[in-house]
Amino acid sequence: MKNKFFMLICATLLCGAVSAQKITLDKVPAPVASAFKSKYPAVTHANWMMENGGKNYAAEFMVNTSRQTASFNPAGGWLKTDTSIKTTEIPAPVKETITKQFTGYTIGSASKMENADHGTGFDVELAKGKDIVDVTLSAKGVVMSQEPRQADPVKTN
């Protein structure tokens, strides 16, 4: 049951991220801006957006060389943070699952997901020829969700 709930949360947040709408800092509620500043005091610049159909707020920012996105509810409650990571930073249990369950796929991109309710997980984009699948795994390597999708079209001039 907990795994199904985690998958539902991941899917909901993913759908919200896809439909994110950029906003300016003056449109961010004070509790959200305050919670962000408290959680990330060293960050001096963030790009803000509304996500999940305008229900939540997300800040995209850089920490050292990592792109991060932190999501908050309107009252300032932290929901999750996604951090882009190098494929070499994926933990061994996650890599083992990918090797065993996704034979022949290569890792295109990865992010570490810290969730207020469910702890740490990893989102990876796997590719095998033209087949692409987005997979969410727990830190222990358990597949929480997988979503096949089409490759982005190649732009030509």
Automatic annotation (TrEMBL):
It holds the Pfam family PepSY_like. Keywords: Signal. The keyword Signal applies. Residues 1-22 form the signal peptide. Residues 55-142 form the Putative beta-lactamase-inhibitor-like PepSY-like domain. This is PepSY-like domain-containing protein.
